[in-house]
Amino acid sequence: MLEIAPMKLSAADLALPAEALVADGVQLALADDYARFSLRARDAAILEGLLGRKLPAKIGETLDGVACLGPDEWLALLPAGTALPLGEGLPVSVTDISSRALGFVVEGPRAVELITSGCPLDVAKFPIGRGTRTVFETVEIVVWRTAEARFHIEVWRSFAPWLWHALAAAA
Amino acid sequence: MKRFSGFNLIGEAFRSHQGWPEHWPDKAPKPAYDAIIVGAGGHGLGAAYYLASKYGITNVAVIEKGWLGGGNTGRNTTIIRSNYLYDESAHLYDHAVKLWDGLSQELNYNIMYSKRGVLMLAHNVHDVQSFKRHIHANRLNGVDNEWLTAEECKAYCPPLDISPNARHPVLGGALQRRGGTARHDSVAWGYARAASALGVDIIQNCAVTGIRRGADGAAEGVETERGFIASKKIGVSAAGSTSVVMAMAGLQFPLESYPLQALVSEPVKPIFPCVVMSNTVHAYMSQSDKGELVIGAGTDQYISYSQRGAFHIIEHTLAAICEIFPIFTRMRMMRTWGGIVDVTPDRSPILAKTPVPGLYVNCGWGTGGFKATPGAADLLAYTIAHDAPHRINAPYALDRFRNGRLIDEAAAAAVAH
Amino acid sequence: MSGYRLSVGGRINRAAPLSFTFDGKAYQGLEGDSLASALLASGVMLFGRSFKYHRPRGILGMGSEEPNALMTVERGPARMTPNLRAPSVALHAGLAAKSQNRFPTLRRDLTAVNDTLSAFFPAGFYNKTFMWPRAAWESVYEPIIRRLAGLGDSPTTRDPDHYGATYAHCDVLVVGAGPAGIAAAVEAAATGGRVILIDEQEEPGGGALADPAQWADLAASLAALNAADNVQILSRTTAIGHYHQNFVVAVERLTDHLAPTDAKGAREKLWRIRAGRVVLAQGAIERPLVFDGNDIPGVMLASAARTAALRYGVAVGRSVIVMAVHDSGWRDALALMAAGVTVSTIIDLRQDVAAELVDAARGAGIAVHLGCAVTSARGRLGISSITYAPGGTVDERAIACDALLMAGGWTPTVHLWSHAKGTLRWDGAWGAYLPDTTHEVMTCVGGCGGAWDYGSGLALGTLPSAKPLHKRKGFVDFQNDVKARDIGLAVQEGFRSIEHIKRYTTNGMATDQGKTSNLNGLQIASDVLSRPVTEIGLTTFRPPYTPQTFGALLGHHKEALFQPLRKTAIDDWARDHGAVYENVAQWRRARYFPRGAEDMDAAVLRECLAVRDSVGMFDASTLGKIEVVGPDAAEFLNRLYTNPWKSLAPGRCRYGLLLREEGFIMDDGVAGRMAPDRFHVTTTTGGAARVLNMMEDYLQTEWSDLDVWLTSATEQWAVIAVQGPKARDVIAGLVSGIDLSREAFPHMAVREGHICGVPTRLFRVSFTGELGFEVNVPAQHGRMVWEAIHAAGQPYDITPYGTEAMHVLRAEKGFIIIGQDTDGTITPEDAGMAWAIGQKKPDFVGKRSLARPDLVAQGRKQLVGLLTEDGTHVLEEGAQIVADPDQPVPMTMIGHVTSAYLSPALGRSIALALVADGRARMGETLYVPMPGGVIRAVVTGPVFYDAEGSRLDA
Amino acid sequence: MLLIHCPYCEEDRPEVEFANGGQAHIARPADPSAYSDPQWEEFLYIRRNPRGRHHERWRHVHGCGRFFNAVRDTVSDRFETTYKAGEPAR
Ligand SMILES: Cc1cc2nc3c(=O)[nH]c(=O)nc-3n(C[C@H](O)[C@H](O)[C@H](O)COP(=O)(O)OP(=O)(O)OC[C@H]3O[C@@H](n4cnc5c(N)ncnc54)[C@H](O)[C@@H]3O)c2cc1C
Ligand SMILES: NC(=O)c1ccc[n+]([C@@H]2O[C@H](COP(=O)([O-])OP(=O)(O)OC[C@H]3O[C@@H](n4cnc5c(N)ncnc54)[C@H](O)[C@@H]3O)[C@@H](O)[C@H]2O)c1
Ligand SMILES: Cc1cc2nc3c(=O)[nH]c(=O)nc-3n(C[C@H](O)[C@H](O)[C@H](O)COP(=O)(O)O)c2cc1C
Ligand SMILES: [Zn+2]
């Protein structure tokens, strides 16, 4: 019989590290806490009225911490603790999802390369400020270019350890 | 037909094998037949063979648009098993397994049916419950299927990784010892040769382009690339193309055709003794007599008649294979290919009469009809000959989509290969 | 000349010798050598044994077309790779190569009796024999065939290497860095777009590497490309397939060319490239000629000898003959002479060969025989002589030699073109298929596009011979031992399609996938069938272009990264407290928490009793959660679920049942109405994504008029179930802003407030039958709140319990688990849940289907309880139930056990089962035939414990 | 991997961001109970499955989240066009 040694590191062992990962040309770190909201409305004006702020109009654009993900969908990443009116009774949906996701910050000259290792989009061509939902391999993420060499990645909490280690392996 | 035997092979060796005749003569279509089979896959060729050998109808033509055996029969991973859950399925597939046994001798053609065992792996509590349910039902249906512990699975298939820290650890498995493989091409060729010897005309490179119906609506024959061929009995066994052929008779079917890929590795010396399937991890594999690892991949998500699939399907398949067989990461993939599988809403086949009198259909085998080849062929022949289904295929009629009597193995067992 | 190494020339580094071994014997090569060139330089001619007949084989080609020289390369423990092509293996210090498919040694291979007996093993022989006695196929014949087949040995240990992967994007992707590809890349680079240039070889250059006259240009172009910041050159990178819309997959080999000690990082890397335009510059592969003995070591392609001499500085022999049907053979002969390799003779089938070539050859002292063909090559482990004769005659003459070069014309490499469904057209002058039309943005340049003057190539399969085909011994597919006469036999036996011929003979099915054999096979078939090749067609090219390791192809998904394992916010606590886990969908969940030496049964018993007697806590965070918000939220749920929703008051919850449109139960869960326009809907753990997708589907495509939006909240909330008579007492001290009293907060209510200072949605629900709460808190606080509840529960000996106890507790109450007690074929009526259907609703998803004839028929399986006569006996889940235990097999089964446990509350076993007409069988005794005997059980209702529900309302 | 033009995002995106939703333009009846068994069977199960031009649904599930329709050739797998849900068949 063939003896097959157990894996050194298994899926169950994957965890988020306490410290940022510094590799050649790129750094990976957990982002600060945010208040996250999913904002939905057919008519952006109603939401804008409710929230008292402008929303980015086009899918993929971002404005003051809010990304337009779909024709009726925005993701708001606001300072931790921010509360928003729920707009009860209005044809809108404002839902607090602060705890649903974690943020990663990928920074450095190799940031694009690192993200492109598993994200099928042409990330190099993202203008600064572009944010979109996509995937890293099979895991759904939101990629948001916050500076020439810095990206913010949103990933659902339970997928975060896998994503971290996948990025770390590619770094 | 010159008999195949070791003795004749040796005899022929001394005259450079000059004496072997054609397996099947290439026939021009006659104007009319007693029965026509559309599609020269294993199922269609087998149906012609059984019509002639069992049901006394020898004036039969098999009409094939390309080369015989070039459909899914020639592109599948050849897994044979019958440990299905529902009575209807167990009876159907076990009918086939019984016919596989002895088929080489019956056809005088070694189709290399190899009962090396099919091991299905359980990776979680739900799998265990579901497999136990299968095992108990199979036992009471007279179908062999037994539970193995993880260690027993490993002993049966040494390359298996049963480390508890795997992402999907192996908790045990269901083994059907009579399950195994057969050589895909040989099955088609063996049936073609035997049918041909009984007088069946095999007409290749002749696509059926229309189905002619009489004033009473009944089938009268087929239009083909080589003209009209009359027959009052037409059996359609066109697998992935069934919807297209049925549309020729004005029928729409509960079918969708998807690309399904498979691949082989480079050949290596024997390392993998059986067939292993894992529905949870989505991997299945065996090793052919030539030495390649034969690996089944998944379907693409969209319908297609292109016989090609996407690379990410291959990526996921190999990841799954290497999750349960980590020793194979250094093995190399030699060839990939695709087939077109016709899938019904309940993932069980349709083997029945159709609303058009004289038109019969055998389709919907999806990702798992090779194992059924002799059984499906026999039952299609029976249904054509008697103008009525056999007891075993009676549940596989079209009316189940109307009345709701689905035979949904997938609902109980996740996937059905 | 030392050995066969030429004294000058080549791109090897003569100052850097490298030691390596082949079959245990030590050799020396030079930096820049391939394994093949280094062995050739040492005078090695015998490289391997063929697949079927174990014939001795040498090198045929010096590129990835090589079919013969397959080796196993060992790079230290657990790093063994079989079937590598020696010409494609870069030499490094310490390399250890081994020949394959021979026993016991390469020179003296006993299995070579197959060759002597080859007359008995023609194509398809196995179909004709091994059928008697019947049992012998599996016990005798097949094992023997299997042992003889296969090439190298599979690895047997876990691979210590890792593999990388990436996506890439470019405007122009050039595949092949020969002169044509480099020129295309230079041109593309000038437009400023992103360019990727890939080549499978150790260095870019392609054919130019064997042509020193081009080296200066090559170096200049490469320098320019390297300097351009919009160009990326990937060497050692093979484009393996062209998929839809210019998606080209390639594999880069990163470390195998280095000595193991120098190898750092990933071994190989997968490139998934999306290109705006694809330029294929794959070149062309030279074609062998088919004549008796064409497989003897020392018979090789002319281009291989040229590469050996001019790129590697190695003579393939000391007395070389060229058999040409194409001008390139002459040019190669002249180049070899110039490089110091003695070419004694050129034989060309053609009568008219350009005078300048003939004159040049004669001038160089080469004997020339025009209008002649080689009729045989002789020698055992290496060629020693040939015979030739005027085309098709018996007038044979012999010449001694130690190498014979075949210049059979060229086959354009149209693999990737064909992967992308590009069409081909037969070009008579080339004697080959050339690219024709494509619907991709893709072009073919250079050799693979038919760009050069190959017009003098003769299209032919075998050299003319006086012998009839069935007596000839020339090979077509070298690796799979397919001879020309096998193709003849196939046709004779009625296999007329080229696809049949391929499968019957296995021509083109070896690891080289017919790179040198497809076209010859086609020509032979065309001759035998007396039909033009154009009518015969071509077999299908399929990815990969050359074999590639699974490790590279599986991308990021190896070992720990195979698939994400989802863990809840409380998972760490469970791990620290000894939880035993089970996997459920993508999650892992604590199954039970053993104390000391407890086994599962003991732990579950204790956990269950704790819930019934005092209080337990359970991590229910994996439950799917969907926030359904908008003015039409209630209307939406009303259309979707079987239950009525509009009447549900804010602050109340309801159990919901969701059907597939076919009427079968798909999912269930409790939904709470948080506000008139806001619902917190829960789903099963495994159903979360499925349900949300289904909801989106109906919302977007059927009821797009509704103002309602869906947000997945599964991961927003950690959920802690606190269950048991003391549940309220435990949380009372932690909760603020919610009146927990029985009156103010009844069963099936939901409240918002705070717990431990963080916001909570507190549900008063119970899946155990006891007084219970489900505490939802933002996931980031889950662990803190869990610990606080655990601490607050200490006075009551609060007991964490796992999924197993949860299952037992709910089964005692007759609550179903979707997927365990139902299986995708069960209606609400079957499950005894007709009460969950809003009878007054005109419609909901699945309602119409419930009226289909078979869904209202008699005899459907219904969920019931089963009590074994022997209360200590726990039925096996999945066991089948019969009414008459004495029937013969196949028995009529009337149902099966879906859930079975030892009930701590009842002190006996209980079971749930789906039984035909079960509700009409109350009190009936049924039978469960098990291998060890038949078990008797009585049909009961499915609720075993507290049927009145009094404990809920405590 | 197909490259699919999302009519909402107005750009080409890789197939792995999408989920196929089967044949397009099969409307769920306003009142299913008025459907006969054969009509209901047709709605549930009968599909065109054509060789050639095919109308199908896709959802940009890992993008903008929207369902939309496409016309694709099932032999070449090439998209002819994609358009927003609710627009008439092209
Ligand atoms: C990759 C892959 C792996 C598989 N693995 C397994 C497995 O492990 N085990 C298993 O049991 N099953 C497996 N299957 C399924 C199995 O291959 C099929 O169910 C089975 O081979 C179907 O046989 P058939 O004779 O019905 O169809 P086919 O062999 O496809 O024959 C149908 C024939 O009809 C012809 N035809 C179509 N239209 C026309 C027309 N208009 N006129 C004339 N002729 C026409 C076609 O050219 C074709 O030759 C797999 C399938 C694939 C693609
Ligand atoms: N005119 C003649 O008679 C004649 C004859 C033989 C050779 N040549 C020479 O052939 C060359 C022609 O140039 P060319 O650029 O068309 O061809 P080429 O053979 O020089 O280059 C093709 C390159 O593509 C690479 N390649 C092929 N498939 C690949 C894949 N799937 N992935 C990665 N790389 C792959 C090959 O390794 C090779 O390096 C010239 O050097 C010419 O002198 C000419
Ligand atoms: C069980 C099985 C084993 C196969 N083994 C090989 C093989 O050893 N070599 C090879 O080139 N192809 C092999 N093939 C694949 C065929 O070459 C071919 O790809 C397949 O029949 C589909 O046909 P197509 O690629 O011409 O469309 C195998 C196919 C099957 C079904
Ligand atoms: Zn989109």
In short:
The complex is a heterotetramer of chains A (171), B (417), C (954) and D (90). Chain B is α/β, with parallel strands linked by helices and 417 residues long.
Strand and helix map with partners:
The complex is a heterotetramer of chains A (171), B (417), C (954) and D (90).
Chain A: E1 21-23, E2 26-30, E3 34-41, H1 44-51, E4 62-63, E5 66-70, E6 73-79, E7 92-96, E8 101-107, H2 111-116, E9 131-136, E10 139-147, E11 150-156, H3 160-170
Antiparallel strand pairs in A: 1-2, 2-8, 3-6, 3-7, 4-5, 5-6, 8-11, 9-10, 10-11
Chain B: H1 6-13, E1 35-38, H2 42-53, E2 60-63, E3 79-80, H3 87-100, H4 103-107, E4 118-122, H5 125-141, E5 146-148, H6 150-156, E6 172-176, E7 180-181, H7 184-197, E8 201-203, E9 208-213, E10 219-224, E11 227-230, E12 234-236, H8 242-248, E13 256-265, E14 275-278, E15 283-287, E16 293-299, H9 311-324, E17 332-343, E18 350-353, E19 359-363, H10 373-386, H11 400-403, H12 409-413
Parallel strand pairs in B: 1-2, 1-12, 2-8, 4-14, 12-19
Antiparallel strand pairs in B: 3-7, 4-6, 5-6, 9-10, 10-11, 13-16, 13-17, 14-15, 15-16, 18-19
Chain D: E1 3-6, E2 11-14, E3 19-23, H1 37-45, E4 53-59, E5 67-73, E6 79-84
Antiparallel strand pairs in D: 1-2, 3-4, 4-5, 5-6
The site of nicotinamide-adenine-dinucleotide has 27 residues of chain C, from α5 and β11.
Q: Could you explain the architecture of this structure?
A:
The complex is a heterotetramer of chains A (171), B (417), C (954) and D (90). Chain A is mostly beta strands and 171 residues long. Chain A folds into two domains: 21-33 and 99-170, 2-Layer Sandwich (Gyrase A, domain 2); 35-96, no CATH class. Helix content of chain A is 15%, strand content 37%. In chain A, a hairpin with a 2-residue loop joins strand 10 and strand 11 (150-156). Chain A is elongated and about 65 Å long. Chain B has twelve helices and 19 strands. Chain B has helices at residues 6-13, 42-53, 87-100, 103-107, 125-141, 150-156, 184-197, 242-248, 311-324, 373-386, 400-403, 409-413, and strands at 35-38, 60-63, 79-80, 118-122, 146-148, 172-176, 180-181, 201-203, 208-213, 219-224, 227-230, 234-236, 256-265, 275-278, 283-287, 293-299, 332-343, 350-353, 359-363. In chain B, the strands form four sheets. Chain B has an eight-stranded mixed sheet. A six-stranded mixed sheet of chain B has the order 8-2-1-12-19-18, with helices on both faces. In chain B, helix 2 (42-53) packs parallel to helix 7 (184-197) and helix 2 (42-53) crosses helix 10 (373-386). Chain B is globular. With 954 residues, chain C is an alpha+beta fold. In chain C, strands 8, 9, 10, 11, 12, 13 and 26 form a seven-stranded mixed sheet that branches. A seven-stranded mixed sheet of chain C has the order 39-40-41-42-38-32-43. Nicotinamide-adenine-dinucleotide binds at residues 63, 175-181, 198-201, 206-208, 211, 238-239, 281-283, 328, 413, 446-447, 452, 545 of chain C. The site of nicotinamide-adenine-dinucleotide has 27 residues of chain C, from helix 5 and strand 11.
